[in-house]
What we know:
This protein is an alpha+beta fold. The chain has helices at 41-48, 52-63, 84-98, 136-143, 152-160, 182-187, 194-213, 217-233, 241-249, 256-264, 269-275, 277-284, 288-304, 312-321, 327-334, 344-353, 355-366, 371-391, and strands spanning 4-6, 19-21, 25-28, 35-38, 67-70, 75-79, 109-114, 117-122, 128-130, 168-169, 172-173. A hairpin with a 5-residue loop joins strand 8 (117-122) and strand 9 (128-130). The protein starts with a strand and ends in a 25-residue tail after the last helix.
Amino acid sequence: MAKFVNINRNVEDPYYRYKMPSILAKVEGKGNGIKTVIANMSEIAKALGRPPTYTTKFFGCELGAQTNFDLKNDRYIVNGEHDANKLQVILDSFIRKFVLCPECDNPETTLTVRRQAIHSKCKACGHAYVIDSKHKIATFILKNPPPVEATEETKEKQRDSPTEDLALNGGKIEESTKIVSAEAVEEDDDWAPEPEQDKLNGEISKLVIHSDLEKPIEERLDMLHQYFVKAKEAGSLGDGKQLLNEAERLDLKNKAPVLLAQVLFTSEILNEIKGYRTLFLRLCLDDMKAQLNLLGGIEQFIEKYPDFMSHAPVIVKALYDNDLCSEDAILQWGSKPSSKFVKKDVSREIIKKCEPLLKWLEEAEEESDSEEEIAVDFDDRARDIGTVIEKRAAPAVNGKLKEEDSGDDDLDIENI
């Protein structure tokens, strides 16, 4: 029988309330067919609040071994001979990365997959964050998201609010959502004059919009993200007016820039900032919160593609040059690292890279007499760097740098 250990084994308190069974590992077979069966993986996974396939797959990733799941017989197997103590240490790593809240170290966290990212939220302190997707297991989790069970409150709400299931399809109501029964229509085709019918359709549309606004913000963010993705795939981004309308309809105008950045920015980010300028202006013009969210989108981009870390000041300067982020917004963003969009240490590193730009903006604001001279000096340097970036291939989004022009090796892009 397995003894129980603290889920966070760094906590030595014997009265620590969060416990899990210690690993029971059984070695079976011999030679090339030897394998380790984790006999109590289901119990461990239940204590952690994660599917047992996640922990088993994590062992395989860390050990470089094949894994097998026999869900029917509740058997979770890692190929090769592995000691229980060694597996317990690896499990500690999984718990740190995918279970414990980085703010309060509490294991009461839930995972969800949205917009091709793994999100986690702590039930204890309320901290919400995006989990680092660099580990190999992240791909497995994205392809096999954790099951989402509707709460009793949600089920009750759905039963009591049938109008929440209304959906418009090209301006027409789906057959399953018509308020008037088919029998009533058959009895009297002219049950309402056309003007009254139009008025009713308008009222139903308002109900649908109101229903969307009642949805949790996470669900509305997903809806808007999917709208942006489909618009890009269909080539219907246009001048951004429809995108703005949809963002306003879902009451997400301030948050829309970070979603749009996720959808649009690739290794050609400098060209894309210019090319999509009108789209972002629709959302960011004279809106400090929207501009700060766009800067958050840049943080997410750099966290996802760390080869762009050294280009951070050039990217932020491009937002400034294209009037997408004001001086005040950039200075406010650079005043303090935040864990709102990325890990705090990543945010801190990005801001540190941007210190020359932030210093220049501060000096330009404080010393208006010398503003023109400083601006010319900085712009010349930024232009030089921009030229270098055009000559040197930008880092590929798969994390591998393309071949660089050796003639520019003497220019340190970090010293902007």
